[in-house]
Amino acid sequence: MFLLVxxxxxxxxxxxxxxxxxxxxxxxxxxxxxxxxxxSLTSAYALGMVCGAxxxxxxxxxxxxxxxLALFLSVFVxxxxxxxxxxxxxxxxxxxxxxxxxxxxxxxxxxxxxxxLAAPERQTRATAVLLSGVTLSIVxxxxxxxxxxxxxxxxxxxxxxxxxxxxxxxxxxxCAPAGAGAGAGAGSGVxxxxxxxALASPPVRQALLLAAAVNGxxxxxxxxxxxxxxxSAGLPGGxxxxxxxxxxxxxxxxxxxxxxxxxxxxxxxxVLALLALPAGxxxxxxxxxxxxxxxxxxVLLGGLSFGAGSALVGRVMRVASPRAPAxxxxxxxxxxxxxxxxxxxxxxxxxxxxGDARDAAWVSTALASAAALPAVALRRRDxxxxxxxxxx
Length: 392
What we know:
81% helix; globular
């Protein structure tokens, strides 16, 4: 039950993170700024997530879990109300950064709590339930926000996100663990400096890099999916929410499958999914100019990308949490959002040079390959070690 409460909050926060793709024109017109300036709000949020997770997780490491979750969620609500009311673009920009930092802190603590409350063999499923809130935000929250923004303006969307957080905040205050014992991932007696040292261990570092590469591949092409749909596939603008929803539906299914089958290891299913991703993104680059293949590939790649990404988050939590009980969730958050920042930036450089939005999918192909090849090598190494141990 408590995991569903956390997933509700993550759904609201995911909606806030991705909703600006449909609100940029309205914000630009209302605040008399350029479209590029309004679009920078998306980058501000992603960078706030990357920079905010470790310090927020470290700051709240000794707090009771209920206090940490409620405080981060309260700040998130407050800055959305300020953002909805302001007429100053610099202040709006600041609220996006503050919202991202609060989101990062909440997600880092929530992932640590979710895995701590679950048995070791169910930790990947726990993180998958939590991250299902993100995929649902893509399926329902982002299209719904776009429709609300068209009907009532962008400010109404900010208010809606704040209101959506209130039931989650009430349930967190009622249901969250009140203590800060080792079982909650904080107060465990492990100094923060020692937890940070876990980043240098090869298993943690490898898991973080794989997660970042897969998420970079996901968002490099996702950032241009609407442009590919309209400019390359010739779909009308009204069809864009359907394409995004198709991707989100696949993502939701992928997270559910990963939650039921993943165990935090580089299993055969995860490696096969990682090998399929480069081929899938290459197919978007080659066949994304036709509507039917684009819809089918959106569903398939949503499932593969978020399924593999969720499984890799489970792996990060599995290898990091023994040595970093408070900061393992922050490590995973940084990995995911580093990819979400780097992928679109690389895609922007490539598409800016070529003028073809489908080339963003080639960037995704390269990034996905950068995850698949090391994963194969790591699985083979683990297999050799297992056989050597059996022979001994």
